[in-house]
Amino acid sequence: MLVSQIETPALILDLDILERNIKTMQSFAAKRMLGLRPHYKSHKSTVIAHKQIDAGAKGLCCAKVGEALDLVNAGIEDILIANEVIDMAKIACVADLANKCRLTVCVDSAENVRDLSNAAALFGSKIFCLVEYNIGMDRCGVNSFEDVLTLAKLVDKLPNLAFEGIQAYAGHMAHEKDFAQRKEYSEKIDRHLHELKQYLEDNGLQVKEVSGASTGTSFLRPEDTVYTEIQPGSYIFMDASYNTLHLEFENSLFLLTTVISKNGERSICDLGAKCVGLDQEKPVLRDYPERLIKCNEEHCTISDGKDFKVGDKLYMIPGHCCTTVNLHDHIYFVREGKVVDRVPVTSRGKSM
């Protein structure tokens, strides 16, 4: 089937570009001796997860227990839930999954650490833990070296848990458009985490992993970076938001839409807010990036669309790839204008 024969609106993935993006990030990680742990939240597809593993990724990270369950069921053997899991039912699920793969979670409270230990003991499993350190995002994580040490020592002494190291994710800098500021802050974070790692080791703890970094900051890791693994997600797809940073990746993910009506110079397409994420930038026409687009629930309007005609199919670059993917059941894999597969978005809607 040709791409032009796909019913719209639809999510289209150019496999040649995807594979180049995967290779680019994997090559960078290898040169820096970094483990690459791509973030599953960007694609939520176990098919793509296996492509990343096959290219050399050490494992996957995800945000939700439901996503981890899908990854385990698909045979992924090394998973980090880069988030705190505090609900008792979810903790029980984590303890069970830890018997089926190498599972790591983030922690930032003593009560949660004890709950994880009790559940792992009940299931006879081992859960690996990263103490999350607030590196400036002001979301999850503890705020001082002393708090990290206290939690790390607790993890280290409790049965069925293993202290692995530190989670330090500076997501607030991922889309910083000022390159000099993004680079300076990234280097400052690295120096600060070197101090934290040394502090923990001076107090008798072995820090095996320092995990974090995003698509916008991964390439800014210095040669002597304290990070041992990076967690980029959007690099495989790119989007209108990340395009403003001029990174070393290409757009591989597109929304295919059809012009369904004309109103003077305006063209109206069958793609709206129910199938494209609008939480960051607006979608952009791939071939006409300067044209303004307004999105409603079921439609988008191209204000300067006089040269389009009803029935034309257009490619749009999503404003935010991660939230866009979560609105679709399937992704069409294409090469050179032909559909080669249609794969499910395995973990669509897995918000728990």
Question: Which overall shape is indicated by the principal axes computed on the Cα atoms?
Answer: elongated
Mean pLDDT, all residues: 96
- Portion in beta strands: 15-25%
Which structural category do the helix and sheet elements fall into?
alpha/beta
Approximate helicity band:
25-40%
Q: Low-confidence segments, ≥5 residues, pLDDT <50?
A: none
Largest sheet composition: 9 strands, mixed
- CA radius of gyration is 22 Å
How many extended strands?
A: 17
Give the distance, in angstroms, between the N- and C-terminal Cα atoms.
Answer: 36 Å
What is the number of helices? 9
Topology pattern, helix = H, strand = E: EHEHEHEHEHEHEHEEHEEEEEEHEE
Descriptive key words:
352 residues, alpha/beta, 30% helix, 8-stranded parallel sheet
Structural overview:
It is built from 9 helices and 17 strands. With 352 residues, the chain is of the alpha/beta class. The strands form 2 sheets. Strands 1, 10, 11, 12, 13, 14, 15, 16 and 17 form a 9-stranded mixed beta sheet that branches. A hairpin with a 2-residue loop joins strand 16 and strand 17 (338-344). Helix 3 packs parallel to helix 4 (88-97). The protein is elongated, with a radius of gyration of 22 Å.
Question: What's the short version?
Answer:
With 352 residues, this protein is α/β, with parallel strands linked by helices. It has helices at 15-31, 46-54, 65-73, 88-97, 110-123, 145-157, 179-202, 240-243, 321-325; strands at 10-14, 35-36, 60-62, 78-84, 102-107, 127-132, 161-167, 209-212, 229-230, 253-263, 266-269, 284-285, 293-295, 300-302, 313-317, 330-335, 338-344. The relative contact order is 0.17.
